[in-house]
Design brief:
With 318 residues, this protein is α/β, with parallel strands linked by helices. Among the domains are: 1-32; 39-136, Elongation Factor Tu (Ef-tu), domain 3, CATH 2.40.30; 259-297. It is 59% helix and 15% strand. It is built from nine helices and seven strands. Strands 1-4-3-2-6-5-7 form a seven-stranded mixed β-sheet, with no helix packed on it. Helix 2 (138-168) crosses helix 3 (172-178) and helix 4 packs across helix 5.
């Protein structure tokens, strides 16, 4: 009998403890889900909830003030999120408060964050709709950071390869850094350029001071005036040459296309032959006249009437 009563007592204690633990668990979970406190239901609309599910926390000012009660799709570009808010904090949340989806830490669960509104606005009420706004996308930031890190790693690898090639003397830049002969050639080129610069400076100084023919030409006003006169004379000569050239062209066109005697003599072969014949006949006539004059000079009649008078030669007295 005693053992049976002891077993029943132990069983009763065990069942009572289990029921108590169950009640405490239900109360604890209910308090977390606001099941045993008065609350209001508010909704908001998002185009992307980023993994938000029912039961996630709602926070205001960093404090848990409610839970997400429903997440459903209402259109192809809108998702309705309903969440409960404790009645005790309702007066602090205004109708113009903004709602955004956040995250607990970097890799934690999604949560609803309510930002405070304006002081003069009314408090939120049952079934009110709060405006949503896009929150910082940590996942996108992490993806971009991953891409940047990958590109940085690739850049570091390329930079390492480049530095190794430069140290080994591969490529033009490596030769420029490691080959001393190139530096020597550059130094020599620089010295030559410096010498050329000095020579140019000396030449310009002499020209400015009027030394040499070029300096006198640039600085001597007499030479400048003489040169100006010479250029004027050259210009007048050039004008006359142009006139003479035009006259020659005109003369040539007249010969080529005119009807004058000179054009006929140049291009008419029959007239040229006649002129040649005339010249031959004239020459022949001149020869005959010359022969006739010589015959007349030897004629006895001319000697008879002309007489042979010899001039007297006066001799000196002895």
């Amino acid at each position: 009998m005693k053992q049976s009563k002891s077993r029943q007592l132990k069983l009763g204690l065990l069942v009572s403890t289990g029921i108590l633990l169950f009640i405490l668990a239900v109360y604890y979970l209910g308090s977390k889900q606001n099941l045993f406190s008065s609350s209001i239901t508010v909704r908001s609309y998002f185009d992307d909830v980023k993994g938000l599910t029912e039961g996630n926390k709602v926070r205001f000012g960093g404090i848990d003030v409610g839970t997400v009660s429903e997440v459903k799709i209402v259109s192809d570009s809108a998702i309705q999120v309903q969440f409960t808010i404790d009645e005790d904090v309702r007066k602090f949340i205004k109708k113009d408060s903004k709602v955004e989806i956040g995250q607990e830490g970097i890799m934690g669960n999604k949560i609803i964050q309510i930002n405070s509104g304006s002081v003069d606005a009314a408090s939120v009420a049952e079934n009110d709709e709060l405006e949503s706004r896009r929150a910082i996308d940590f996942e996108g930031i992490l993806k971009e950071a991953h891409g940047i890190i990958s590109e940085g790693h690739l850049f570091a690898t390329n930079l390492k390869e480049m530095s190794e090639k430069m140290n080994k003397g591969d490529g033009d830049l490596a030769r420029f850094l490691n080959d001393s002969s190139i530096t020597t050639s550059l130094n020599q080129t620089g010295e030559q350029l410096l010498a050329i610069t000095k020579n140019v400076h000396s030449i310009t100084r002499k020209v400015n001071e009027g030394e040499g023919d070029l300096g006198r030409l640039l600085n001597d006003t007499v030479i400048a005036r003489s040169a100006a006169g010479a250029f004027d004379n050259l210009e007048r000569i050039s004008t006359r040459l142009d006139t003479f050239t035009n006259e020659l062209l005109f003369f040539g066109r007249e010969i080529n296309h005119g009807n004058g005697l000179l054009q006929r003599l140049v291009y008419d072969t029959a007239m040229a032959a006649n002129v040649d014949t005339g010249i031959i006949l004239i020459n022949h006539g001149v020869e005959e006249v010359t022969a006739t004059a010589q015959a007349v000079r030897r004629s006895w009649l001319l000697k008879l009437f002309g007489g042979n008078k010899k001039p007297k030669v006066q001799t000196a007295n002895k």
